[in-house]
Amino acid sequence: MIGTSYQTDTLIVGGGVIGCAIAYELAKAGVQVTVLEKDTLGSQSTRAGAGMLGAQVEMTKPDPMFDLSIQSRALFPKLREELLELSGIDMELHTSGIFRIAVDEADRAALLDRQSWQTEAGQRAVWFEDEELRGELGDILSPTYGALYLPDDHQVRNPQLLLALAASSKRLGARFLEHSAMVCFLQDNGAIVGVKTVDSEIRADRVILAAGAWSGLIANQLGLELPVFPVKGQSFLLDSYSPPTPFTIYTHGCYILPKRNGQVYVGATEETRSGFDRRPNLRSLATLSSQAVQLLPSLGDLPFSTPLAGLRPGSLDGLPFLGSVPGIAGLYVATGHFRNGVLLSAITGRLIAELLTGKTPSVDLEPFSLSRLQHS
Asked: Where are the domains of the chain?
């Protein structure tokens, strides 16, 4: 139990993968950091996510988001080593690559175009025709219209990544306050100087808002427009001693990820009208189950393990918000990562830490700044 007042250099509101990644990078830089989480660490979107490091499979055009994703993906092998050494916890980096399967001629044309510009950008992207694809995956149903194989798009297991980040951060001196909901910001002459919880005040030189889908609601307390909204995603886990394929298989409305612990992750819906209700429902899971079995029939014989549902933090233009808040001293944001929170966690942690320690960020933050709303 914390007392009536607590002082920290930097306070992070939100204990998902983004907040924990920032805490780790700040703690590594010697900054005193505290993470405030209203529930348990990673209990919202992080808990339900697939863990894809889909820097290529998720991106449809060469733009700042693609560049940010590629740079973040490249950080994971070294990050895994660091966290494993500090915490003894393995994020279970799985490096077999991703097959993005075309479902019709239009999809095929779009994926071939993606192969072209991604190859020009220096990334590996290999086209498989249906017969070649069947030789690799065997069990898939016909016909397909080919597939784009992305050997450098990997995956991790979300709970392990989160545990590794949190444990490593604690080892470096970070403090985590779970089951401690923020009530309001503390202000002094317009500057943010901390937050108030139900039973305490936490004073801080800087506050980082990293509360995922809830970030927009929290920002409203300040009259701040932060257009981040919940997008519900439902998925489920299957138990398997030996998953039917080592590859991640991805197509419209469905993706299948074999995990190193033997489970298979099947995801995921995208629902914008569910508000903040993150309970799984039968219709969505039944539809997803049907798609998965049509894609990979042997999944139908695997035992059902766990339904999952989470609220992704969406933004109107699909880009996250990263950096300082114009006109509000002491407040920073790191939210709106939508489907790519795990993928972008590594670069987000690094960029926010660079910004707060006086370094020039290694990526131009202008495309991801709140100020972009003024020009839209």
From this structure: 5-53+160-228+317-375, 94-153+232-311
pLDDT digits (tens, 9 = 90+) for 142-191: 689 999 999 999 999 999 999 999 999 999 999 999 999 999 999 999 99
As a CATH number, domain 94-153+232-311 is: 3.30.9.10
The token duo for 72 is 């973040």
DSSP code at position 224? -
Reported as a pLDDT band with limits 50, 70 and 90, residue 139 is confident
Q: Are 348 and 337 in contact (CB under 8 A)?
A: yes
Strands 201-209, 331-335: pairing is parallel
C-alpha 233/C-alpha 280 separation (Å) is 9
CA distance 288 to 290: 5
DSSP-assigned states of every residue in 257-270: EE-TTS-EEEE---
Strands 201-209 and 5-13 turn out to be parallel
Nearest CA to 168 out of 83, 231, 252 is that of 83
As a whole-number percent, the residues of the chain with pLDDT over 90 amount to 89
Model-level pTM greater than 0.85?
yes
Q: Is the separation of the CB atoms in 16 and 46 below 8 Å?
A: yes
Q: Provide the pLDDT for residue 1.
A: 41
Give the tens place of pLDDT for each residue, 55-67. Answer: 999 999 999 999 9
Is the separation of the CB atoms in 231 and 314 below 8 Å? Answer: yes
Which pair of structure tokens corresponds to residue 110?
A: 């779009």
Strand partners, 238: 264, 304
Half-sphere exposure of 183 (CA within 13 A, CB side): 8
Q: What fold is seen in the domain 5-53+160-228+317-375?
A: FAD/NAD(P)-binding domain (3.50.50)
Average pLDDT over every residue of 284-293: 95
H/E segment holding residue 137: helix 130-137
Q: Say whether the peptide bond before residue 143 is cis (omega within 30 degrees of 0).
A: yes
- Say if 5-53+160-228+317-375 and 94-153+232-311 have the same CATH topology: no
State how far the Cα of 115 lies from the Cα of 360, in Å rounded to an integer. 33
